[in-house]
Amino acid sequence: MLSWFELLIPWFASFLGDWFANLIVRLLFVIVWVAIAIILTIIVKPVVYRSLRLNDAWRKKKPLRKITEKIPLREEPFAIVDLQKRGLTIAKGLVSILQALIWFAVLMILLDGFGIDVTVILASAGVIGVAIAFGTQALVKDFISGLFILMEKTFLVGELVTIDGFTGVVKEIGLRTTKLEDWKGAYLIINNGNIGSVVNFSRDYSVAVVDLVLNHVNDYQKAAEAIREFVTLTGQKYPEMTEPLRYVGIVESTDLRATFRMAAKCRPAEHFGIERSLRADLLAFAEERGLILPFVQVSLVPGEPHGK
Predict the structure, then answer these.
(1) Would you give the distance in Å from CA 7 to the centre of its chain?
(2) Which helix (H) or strand (E) holds 248?
């Protein structure tokens, strides 16, 4: 590759001398190939995203309608949303790999241009790689786990999951680490090899569960009738609900209180917001119907002075 640039040496040497001419040609050689690497790393992202039919998603915009036209709707609910997220996840991983390969190839070209035998480097890379693998088993474990996460669709970018007790939205799945962000803006960065059990709230549907705890002074029969009325009035009030609210029944009772439960199917990961809205509606309804909620009771027992 450098031989092409060496054609310029006589021209530079005519007014700068041989030493400066060789220096300038080598600098041009490095600058040109570094510029090529930078340009390729910039354009590889939109090329990959468009090849996967993600269109303008690489500009952090919503994917265009074309992706829904090319993917048939399967029997599972929200299948198109799932495939969009999977495509975005794979695209990010593929872009990172291609960018690394581009810089590696350019580095080999530069070394070859300066007279370094790259075949020896490439041949010894395998041996060195095995030696490094023994010393970096955790890194290899993270890398392999990241590949399995991507291939098996354990979770995808944009899904709500719980990992190691941390609940948040998947922001990035790398080949070594996964990044989650919760509703308070806190980030969890965890190595892929350390990910154990995963709870995914973004598959198929979620269930909003709302409990109403009533004091024992209430007539439970009338309370159940009032709650059924609330369930009928609420129905499928919120667009995130996929089925109307239903009354489950009394799930717990003691001498002092009883717990009445309602549930509703919702779109993936939407049950948290639905539960908050239903609780507010339910408390207002209970107050309107005169249902008595539990309250703290303090009983004073008369006794003798000094505990006698």
Answers:
(1) 52
(2) strand 246-253
Per-residue pLDDT reduced to its tens digit, 255-281: 888 999 999 999 888 888 999 999 999
- Assess contact for 208 and 264: CB atoms under 8 A: yes
Distance CA 11, CA 17 (A): 10
Cα R_g (the chain), whole angstroms: 32
Q: Is the pLDDT of residue 127 over 80?
A: no
Of 182, 187, 193, nearest in space to 145 by CA: 193
CA-to-CA separations, 205 to 77, 79, 184, 202, 261, in angstroms, rounded: 8, 11, 24, 7, 19
Q: In the chain, what percentage of residues exceed pLDDT 70?
A: 71
Whose tokens are 């995808």? That residue is: 156
| Model pTM score | 0.52
Domains of the chain (ranges, CATH numbers)? 2-135 (no CATH), 160-200 (2.30.30.60), 206-289 (3.30.70.100)
Of 249, 254, 250, the closest CA to residue 216 belongs to 254
pLDDT at 187 exceeding the cut of 50: yes
